[in-house]
UniProtKB/TrEMBL annotation:
The name this protein goes by in its record: Diaminopimelate epimerase
EC number(s) given by UniProt: 5.1.1.7
Complex and partners: Homodimer.
Phylogenetic lineage: Bacteria, Bacillati, Actinomycetota, Actinomycetes, Mycobacteriales
Catalysis: reaction(s): (2S,6S)-2,6-diaminopimelate = meso-2,6-diaminopimelate
Entry annotation: catalytic residues: 87, 226
Gene: dapF
Length: 289
């Protein structure tokens, strides 16, 4: 079975073209594929299929809002095999992949996701390097909550970007003290507030239009970047300055992206890199049940 490997600011994914929806993405298979020793290694898996084909195969119960049957659908799984509604870095890699393989010929189109249709603009896709803007849609404020990590409490805002986030702005944090935080353990959070788990972002306040952020992702662990997380972070950072709109450069360990927030919606612009393509041994895959 064919695969490609790509990343968006070093949040990396195995891309699986599956137009006939033949693959059964069981938890053991996704976990093995994402394992950096016994598999290819990735933060997540992006299955490529039309939304209508996924609905016919029963992978989707129905077509999410803003998604038509003929849209290519990003069927995203976290490295632990769990489903997540949306993946901002993944959509950029997915859109770049579609153009690079000729599955899509337009530069502006909609990518389907469990969080709804996401319009994309592929500004460039020259070989391995892409530059993509994603309309991330509505950003919903879930109210105040807090995370505990590295023996400290971080107050933050719950933000729904299609998937759940807890974005914690610490005005005393610097890029240096942020990089010194220990994020190896999963942050503590209020399970009553986030009954389905949460992606946790820790970030500095805005300085010269930019913030520094690290993230511990639900179903993955600390990643070099999280696209939906950068949207949550930018929203919280603007809120911390008393604003509900603006453009924020978010610096993450894997690079940087630009988030624009306005009237409760956001766009995310950033790079995409397609590193490799190859084939996965079918018997290896089939033996994983
Ligand atoms: N890496 C993804 C986020 C995955 C979110 C996933 N960890 C979840 O369970 O919501 C991104 O770039 O937005």
């Amino acid at each position: 079975m064919d695969f490609s490997k790509g990343h968006g600011t070093e949040n990396d994914f195995v891309v699986l073209p599956d137009p006939d929806v033949r693959l059964d993405l069981t938890v053991p298979r996704v976990k093995a594929l994402c394992d950096r020793r016994r598999g290819l290694g990735a933060d997540g898996v992006l299955r490529v299929a039309k939304a209508g084909a996924l609905a016919e195969a029963g992978v989707l119960a129905d077509l999410p809002e803003g998604t038509s049957a003929d849209d290519w659908f990003m069927d995203y799984r976290n490295a632990d095999g769990s489903l997540a509604e949306m993946c901002g870095n993944g959509v950029r890699v997915f859109a770049h992949y579609l153009l690079s393989t000729g599955l899509e010929t337009r530069e502006e189109f909609v990518v389907g996701s469990r969080a709804g249709g996401k319009p994309v603009v592929v500004h460039s896709s020259d070989g391995p390097l892409g530059d993509v803007t994603v309309d991330m849609g509505k950003i919903r404020d879930l109210g105040s909550s807090a995370a505990t990590l590295d023996g400290k409490v971080f107050n933050g805002i719950g933000i729904d970007v299609g998937n759940p986030h807890l974005a914690c702005v610490d005005p005393h944090l610097t890029a240096a003290s942020l990089s010194a935080l220990d994020l190896t353990a999963a942050p503590g959070f209020d399970p009553g507030f986030f009954p389905h788990g949460v992606n946790v972002e820790i970030l500095t306040r805005i300085d010269s239009g930019a913030v520094d952020m690290r993230v511990h992702e639900r179903g993955v662990g600390e990643t070099r970047s999280c696209g939906t997380g950068t949207v949550a972070a930018a929203t919280a950072a603007l809120r911390h300055e008393g604003s509900d709109s603006g453009e924020v450069v978010v610096r993450i360990p894997g690079g940087q992206v630009t988030v624009a927030v306005s009237e409760g919606r956001a766009t995310l612009r950033g790079p995409s890199v397609l590193v490799a393509s190859g084939s996965i041994d079918d018997s290896w895959w089939n033996a994983l049940t």
